[in-house]
Amino acid sequence: MECGFTMAGNAHGIFTLLPWGWDEDAPYPTPVRWHTGDPETDPWEWRMRLLEEYHDVAYGKVFFGVAGFITREWYPYFLACRREGADFADIYAEGKLTRTAKTVYETVAREGKVASHALRNFTGLPKEDTGKIDRAVTELQRQMFLTICGRTRKVNKYGEEYGWNSTVFCTVEDFWGGDIAMDISPEDAERKISARIRELNPDARDADIRRFIYG
Questions:
Q1: Measured between alpha carbons, how far is 64 from 11 in angstroms, rounded to an integer?
Q2: Has this prediction a pTM greater than 0.70?
Q3: Tell me: the pLDDT tens digits for 12-35?
Q4: Domains of the chain and CATH, by start
């Protein structure tokens, strides 16, 4: 992915490889069709194909609370801006993450990989906290502690799969196979990302760029 990063749909004033959403008409003739289940022409399938077939691109809700892609080359720069060199314990102690987020993160870190439908059981949180868990997962992706690493389906007592695919999460470090951070300041990282955005979209607004970079 030569651009380095992209929104997965609406450009939000920054950049996207696919300039129309599932509920919009394509602006030019194309075989691409959303939500058909065809892995060759359905962008919804591409996001998981990318994770399954490549090992240098991450996908998750990292921009504006919605999904996007970041290559390994660019990931450390976003990480420098989001974490500012701090680890999970430091950021939680500063009050930047909720208690539910802490529980979810520690659960995924302990288990290695956890499907979204299984998070409540693994965390031991009550059923009424389901909404809090969903928000915590988004929060942890935005802060770049968790990322999507695949998909799976529920399995019944007979070992048979059923239902829709469920997203699987792991820690960022597990996804990349080790520490992905670089010794780079948030200021330098922001300048590098901003310059790349200007190359991709010269009309991008400063406010949108900053929100994009810092989540």
A1: 10
A2: yes
A3: 999 998 777 767 777 778 887 878
A4: 1-82+182-215 (no CATH), 86-180 (1.10.10.10)
